[in-house]
Amino acid sequence: MASVSVCQYHSGGFSFENCKRNALLEADINKLGFSSPAARKTGTTICGVVYKDGVVLGADTRATEGMVVADKNCSKIHYISPNIYCCGAGTAADTEMTTQIISSNLELHSLSTGRLPRVTTANRMLKQMLFRYQGYIGAALVLGGVDCNGPHLYSIYPHGSTDKLPYVTMGSGSLAAMAVFEDRYRPNMEEEEAKRLVRDAIAAGIFNDLGSGSNIDLCVITKGNVDYLRPHDMANKKGVREDKVYGRPVTGSYRYKHGTTGVLTKAVTPLNLEVVEESVQTMDTS
Amino acid sequence: MFISHNFEMDSFSQNPEFTIHSFFTFLDTSIMAVEFEGGVVIGADSRTTTGAYIANRVTDKLTPIHERIFCCRSGSAADTQAIADAVTYQLGFHSIELDEAPLVQTAASLFRDMCYRYREELMAGIIVAGWDPRRGGQVYTVPVGGMMTRQPVSVGGSGSSYIYGYVDSNYRAGMSKEECLKFTAEALTLAMERDGSSGGVVRLAVISEQGVERQVILGNQLPKFSTV
């Protein structure tokens, strides 16, 4: 968009100068053939559903650094307040810090008002902060909780737009999870059905998306009670090395038993060695 | 219609690390507002996209700014939500100061001031519509760039390109409320039919002295035109 404008330095607001500098540095480094360190992302499948008595939030537990799994069992469901929890996808550090900052501010706000915080308040705070940073904070969140107005579920995008819906999914595995939701969601489900639905949605993300994996965490929030189920389902338990294969012992040791190789002939040759010279040097141990 | 600032638009299926947050959420849209004697009719589709994925298929793009003033949002979802929240606050404060209902023109001016001042950073096309006691039903359009003008009928969003002909040829001054509702529903249906970024349901609202009546037309209840 071309525009005629007098170049004026902004006096207030956030300065994005460093972002431009970082982009230039990245280009320079790539030209030299190196690659800048990759931020740890959470790949991820996260989702949430509103059911009869509250909300169920779900998340996988894989954190990736490029193409390597950095953490096989990380926790993506973050505490915001006793009645509000938030799942985070995107850059791991961003989701962690953002949720902690809002949790802290919300606690102060709650002490000031003397009331249990509302989910819409947390939503407002998160969206206004993310919009202020114009998408540079890579945090895509699923915020859910129960307050005086009932259960609420929001999806919050890194640029600061939010949607209030009965079921949401986010992250690289969100399409797989949404397919499960679109098939089986009904309004006013019972708790067990809702938990099964969320578990299956996350499982769809885990098994069909490379960025998601390991276990399934669930968080069930109702009025006055939170069940933080970690892990709810160990879908990818590490295998145990077998002790016997076809009846024969298979161990990690590579020592063979005496007699494994048959001895055909044995010849012993004594070497007569004479002591020619012997000298002793004492060590100075003072 | 995509403007990439510093992000690269990753190919959807090729990159296994693809996370949706590398795209913007857009309200590439069809929105519309029509004045009639005694109020306004506003309408919008319900699709929000991130790239080729529909992030929300039941979006409500008709946002209340005040009791009898609404805005229809198109463009970047984050930008329009932030602007609408800011203007709602400013207008509410102004209304309390005046101790009377605010004018639709005031609301439109607030939108215009914000959209023009931050025109380089924002991507927002907004139609402000409502009813006030002084001038009745009014529609003001504030497109990308920050212009503001009053129009008897206004369309916006990516789907609007496909229905300018329909709107220009079918609009008559002095339509009744029911005729306006039918006109809006049909125009939006046609836009949704042809524009990939518009779809879902049609949300309508009538704003008049009596208040606000909202309705939803689901996908299978939309008016039918000849299928080719």
How would you describe this structure to a colleague?
The complex is a heterodimer of chains A (286) and B (228). Chain A has 286 residues and is α+β, with helices and mostly antiparallel strands. Chain A has a domain at 45-234: 4-Layer Sandwich (Glutamine Phosphoribosylpyrophosphate, subunit 1, domain 1), CATH 3.60.20.10. Helices cover 28% and strands 26% of the residues of chain A. Chain A is built from 5 helices and 14 strands. In chain A, strands 10-1-2-11-12 form a 5-stranded antiparallel sheet, covered by helices on one side. Chain A has a 5-stranded antiparallel sheet with strand order 5-6-7-8-9, with helices on one face. In chain A, strands 3-4 form a two-stranded antiparallel ribbon. Chain A is elongated and about 100 Å long. Chain A starts with 16 loop residues before the first helix and ends in a 37-residue tail after the last strand. The model of chain A has no long low-confidence stretch (mean pLDDT 89). With 228 residues, chain B is of the alpha+beta class. The two termini of chain B are 27 Å apart. Chain B is 27% helix and 31% strand. Chain B has one domain: 4-Layer Sandwich (Glutamine Phosphoribosylpyrophosphate, subunit 1, domain 1). Chain B contains 4 helices and 13 strands. The relative contact order of chain B is 0.20. Chain B has helices spanning 77-98, 104-117, 164-170, 177-194; strands at 26-27, 31-36, 39-44, 48-50, 53-56, 62-66, 69-76, 124-132, 136-142, 149-150, 153-156, 202-208, 211-217. The longest helix of chain B is centred in the middle third of the chain and has 22 residues, at 77-98. Residues 1-22 of chain B have low confidence and may be disordered. The chains are: A alpha+beta (286), B alpha+beta (228). Chain A binds chain B through residues 1, 3, 5, 19, 23, 41, 43-44, 64, 66-67, 89-90, 124, 127-128, 130-131, 134-135, 138-140, 155, 157-163, 165, 170-172, 174-175, 209-211, and chain B through 6-7, 16-21, 24-25, 48, 50, 53, 55-56, 58-59, 76-79, 81-82, 85, 119-121.
